[in-house]
Design goal:
Beta-Lactamase, Rossmann fold, six-stranded antiparallel sheet, 14 helices
C-alpha cells in the first residue's frame, strides 16, 4: 500500500462527506464522524502496519521521533491548502492509532453557524473576559474563531492567538493577527500569555486554559485593558466559575473571585444538537456579568447563578433549557434530541 496516496484518498473523502472527524485504528476500517454519528467505511479493516503507515504519513521525521518518545502527539496538518486537520496520534494496545479533526479552510460567520445574535455584541467590547465553554467536540473553537474573525472584519485591532495546535488560519482584514502555536512558537500557554503584555495586543485568544498560571494571567490581561477570549471544558457557567476558582489555593480564591467579578463579560456554554435537517445546531446558555452576577461571584454564592440566569432574560441571559426549547419551537431540533442535551429534561418539557 502507498500510504501517502491512501492518506490523500481518506482526507478527500472526509472533506467530501463533510465529516467532522476521521479515526484510524488497527482492526477497524477508517471511521468518519458525520453529523455526530460514527460511519464505518466499507473497506477492509486496517492492519496494525497499515494504521501505523497512514499515521506516520502525516508526520515529519522530527514528529515521528517525538511521538515514539512521548507515545502521543498533537499537531495540525495542512492538506494541499484545501483544509487543515487537528491531529492526535497515540498508542493503544501497543499499536498506533490516529484521530483527525477537520478544520474547514473558510471561517464561517456567526450567522452561518446559527449562533445567538447576542454573541455578536460580545465582540464589540474593548476589554474584558469572554469564555466559551462546553464538552469536547461541541464547537467551542469554531465559535471562538467566528467571534475573532468578526472583530477582524469590523475593527482595526491587533489580535494575538495562542493555540494547541493552530486550527483556523485567519486572514488579516481590518485587524492584524498573529497566531502562535504551542511547542512550535512558544513553550507554554502561560509563557505566551505573559509575553503578550509586551506585544501590544488589543484582543487575545487563548485556545484553552489548562493551569492556574494561565488562568491568572488571562484574568489579569482582561483587567489591564485587553479583550480576552478563552475556552474551558465545563458544562455550565456556574461550573466554569467553580473550576477556575478551585484551581487556586484557599488564600488566593477570594482575590480570583474579585478579579472575575470585575473583568468577566460573559460565559457562553455551548452544545451541538442534531438538527432536523440532518446537521447540527448550537444550543447556548448565556450568562452576562450583571451587577447581580458579579455580587454572587464576589460573595462565593455560585450556586445561585443558574436561578439568576433563568430569571434574567430581559438582560439578555439565556438558560440552556430555554435555548433548547426555542430550538424545538422553531422546528430545528426534536424534543427527544433536546432532552438528551438538557441538564434538566423534566424542566425542559415543561418549558416546551
Amino acid at each position: 500500500m502507498d500510504y501517502q496516496i491512501y492518506l490523500k484518498q481518506l482526507l478527500e473523502a472526509t472533506i467530501k462527506n463533510e465529516a467532522s472527524d476521521l479515526h484510524l485504528s488497527e482492526g477497524h476500517p477508517p471511521i468518519m464522524r458525520i453529523n455526530r454519528a460514527l460511519v464505518r467505511l466499507k473497506v477492509d479493516p486496517l492492519t496494525a502496519e497499515e494504521a501505523q503507515g497512514v499515521s506516520f504519513a502525516l508526520m515529519s521525521e522530527t514528529q515521528i521521533s517525538n511521538f515514539e518518545k512521548d507515545k502521543e502527539i498533537d499537531f495540525s496538518y495542512d492538506f494541499d491548502g484545501r483544509a487543515r486537520f487537528r491531529v492526535n496520534i497515540f498508542y493503544q494496545m501497543g499499536t498506533v492509532s490516529a484521530a483527525l479533526r477537520l478544520v474547514p479552510e473558510r471561517i464561517r460567520t456567526m450567522e452561518e453557524l446559527r449562533l445567538p445574535a447576542r454573541l455578536q455584541q460580545l465582540c464589540e467590547y474593548a476589554q474584558g473576559f469572554v469564555l466559551v465553554v462546553g464538552p469536547s467536540s461541541h464547537g467551542k473553537s469554531t465559535t471562538l474563531a467566528a467571534m475573532v474573525d468578526k472583530i477582524n472584519h469590523t475593527r482595526a485591532t491587533h489580535i494575538i492567538t495562542i493555540e494547541d495546535p493552530i486550527e483556523y488560519i485567519f486572514k488579516d482584514d481590518k485587524s492584524m493577527i498573529n497566531q502562535r502555536e504551542l511547542h512550535l512558537d512558544t513553550l507554554s500557554f502561560a509563557q505566551a500569555l505573559k509575553s503578550t503584555f509586551r506585544e501590544d495586543p488589543d484582543v487575545i485568544m487563548v485556545g484553552e486554559m489548562r493551569d492556574p498560571e494561565t488562568m491568572a494571567t488571562a484574568i489579569t490581561a482582561a483587567e489591564t485593558g485587553h479583550l480576552v477570549f478563552a475556552t474551558l471544558h465545563t458544562n455550565s457557567a456556574a461550573q466554569t466559575i467553580h473550576r477556575i476558582v478551585d484551581n487556586f489555593n484557599g488564600d488566593q480564591q477570594s482575590q480570583i473571585r474579585a478579579q472575575l467579578a470585575s473583568s468577566l463579560i460573559a460565559i457562553v456554554s455551548q452544545r451541538l444538537v442534531p438538527s432536523t435537517d440532518g446537521k447540527v445546531v448550537p444550543a447556548c446558555e448565556i450568562m452576562l456579568n450583571t451587577s447581580a452576577i458579579a455580587n454572587l461571584i464576589r460573595d462565593n454564592k455560585i450556586y445561585e447563578i443558574p436561578l439568576v440566569i433563568e430569571t434574567s432574560s430581559e438582560s439578555g441571559m439565556v438558560s440552556l433549557n430555554r435555548s433548547l426549547s426555542e430550538l424545538v419551537r422553531k422546528g430545528l431540533v426534536t424534543i427527544e434530541n433536546a432532552s438528551k442535551f438538557s441538564n434538566n429534561p423534566r424542566e425542559l418539557r415543561k418549558l416546551i
